[in-house]
Design a protein that fits this description.
- It is a single chain.
- 46% of the residues lie in helices and 14% in strands.
- The chain is α/β, with parallel strands linked by helices.
- The protein folds into two domains: 154 residues, Aspartate Aminotransferase, domain 1 (Alpha-Beta Complex), CATH 3.90.1150.10; 237 residues, 3-Layer(aba) Sandwich (Aspartate Aminotransferase, domain 2).
- The strands form five sheets. It has a seven-stranded mixed beta sheet with strand order 4-12-11-10-9-5-6, sandwiched between helices. The chain has a three-stranded antiparallel beta sheet with strand order 13-16-15.
- The radius of gyration is 22 Å and the shape is globular.
- Bound molecules: D-serine.
- The site of D-serine has 4 residues, from loops.
- D-serine binds next to loops.
């Protein structure tokens, strides 16, 4: 079926590339843990006439006329987001996760202030203070790490000592490559002891929090949560900032997002966020979020049986970080390439204190949000994990790679990407 009749007639080049991507997604397995498939309803909202509208400001307080329907849409998104995450305030305008973090820093800090966050090589994110970002020219970042990469245990005594010494204004939880839960209660207590604001970057696990499959940092005294909306939350590419109950903080965040940092909100995306939040409020989404975790556990079991080292010993969330260089003698880059060849998409990833370079590190990172949306259960996920190890062990055997590719295509055929999610 041709979903793009006008595009096909008008612009054959772009049409061809988009259809190519549609086919790639349909016939391959998406294991990048920060990706997912949105519903047809989310796509329709995202492709709507709202893309034509400028709406600087917030509902009821805009700088341009014609805002009757944009106000309705943004208010729906805000109300649903608050309910999902148990927050009193929501700003749904950040264009993505990194802009959400930048706006949050701008709202809560002065230049030169200190942030205590997780080290990138131990699972943190670039915006948590990696030297390659411009943020490090403005703010001072200090880091905490895992005490033991084999268990994932964080040294909270050390975190407390660093917080007392460095006096951060923000104590930042959250990560993009850490497979365990953090101790929000202890982190929140440390933040209070040093007068810092406790912020969670929930970009990766927002859907798991919304689906009640993991803990909600707001239940443990966190003040602010930033997130993306397109990962486990299964919405359009975008960001959001939630404030638990402090109106003063919420006002500062609104001002920092607009006019402080961004221009006009992307209103078609905000409509798609509203639709996604509506889906995430459904009981079916809770079942989905729990299944994401069960599926990751099923993959963990296979990797453990095959003797592949997993950072932190396994997973308690949606992702696994495997040391393929240490265990199978294949680098992260080469693993990513050969798995791509058989139709499994994931990403190379540095592991804690990696001795290899970021573009060819020791690890791979993969997860179950997208294949769970596709309807895969534990048995199928275990089979996918077996095929991954098989592929990595037989990476020079072209005949075997072809057989694996064929099996993956068959699996995808049995589980097409769904149009309806609730
Ligand atoms: N690119 C995202 C991820 O894959 O985790 C983080 O920004």
């Amino acid at each position: 079926m041709n979903h793009y009749p006008y595009l096909k007639k008008q612009d054959a080049q772009v049409f061809k590339a988009i259809v190519g991507e549609d086919t790639r997604q349909a016939e391959g397995l998406e294991l990048i843990p920060s990706e997912n498939y949105v519903s047809r309803a989310v796509k329709e909202a995202n492709a709507s006439s709202l893309t034509n509208k400028y709406s600087e400001g917030y509902p009821g307080k805009r700088y341009y006329g014609g805002q009757h329907f944009t106000d309705i849409v943004e208010n729906i998104a805000r109300e649903r987001a608050k309910k999902l995450f148990k927050a009193q305030f929501a700003n749904v305008q950040p264009h993505a996760g990194a802009p959400a973090n930048v706006a949050m820093y701008m709202a809560l800090l002065e230049p030169g202030d200190t942030i205590l966050g997780m080290d990138l090589s131990h699972g943190g994110h670039l915006t948590h203070g990696h030297p390659v970002t411009y943020l490090t020219k403005i703010f001072r970042f200090v880091r905490y790490k895992m005490k033991n990469p084999e268990t994932g245990e964080i040294d909270y005594d050390e975190m407390r000592a660093v917080a007392k010494r460095e006096k951060p204004k923000i104590l930042l939880a959250g990560y993009s490559a850490y497979p365990r839960e953090l101790d929000y209660k202890t982190m929140s207590a440390i933040a209070r002891e040093v007068g810092a604001i406790a912020v969670m970057d929930a970009a990766h696990i927002a859907g798991l929090i919304a689906g009640r499959a993991v803990k909600n940092p707001f239940d443990y005294g966190f003040d602010v949560m930033t997130t993306t909306t397109h990962k486990t939350l299964r919405g359009p590419r975008g960001g959001m900032i939630l404030t638990r109950d402090n109106e003063d903080i919420a006002k500062k965040i609104d001002k920092a997002v607009f006019p402080g940092f961004q221009g006009g909100p992307i209103m078609n995306t905000i409509a798609a966020k509203a639709v996604c939040f509506g889906e995430a409020l459904s009981p079916k989404f809770r079942t989905y979020a729990k299944q994401v975790l069960k599926n990751a556990k099923a993959m963990e079991k296979v990797f453990a049986k095959e003797g592949v080292r997993m950072l932190t010993g396994g997973t308690s969330n949606h992702l696994i970080l495997a040391d393929v260089w240490g265990s199978l003698g294949v680098s992260g880059h080469d693993a990513e390439t050969v798995l791509d060849e058989v139709g499994i998409t994931l990403n190379k990833n540095s592991i804690a204190d990696d001795t290899r370079k970021p573009m060819d590190p020791s690890g791979i990172r993969f997860g179950t949000p997208a294949i769970t949306t596709r309807g895969f259960g534990e048995k199928e996920c275990a089979r996918v994990a077996e095929l991954m190890v098989d592929t990595l062990k037989n990476r020079t055997n072209k005949k075997r790679l072809k057989e694996v590719r064929a099996e993956i295509k068959r699996m995808c055929g049995k589980r097409p990407i769904p149009e309806r999610l609730v």
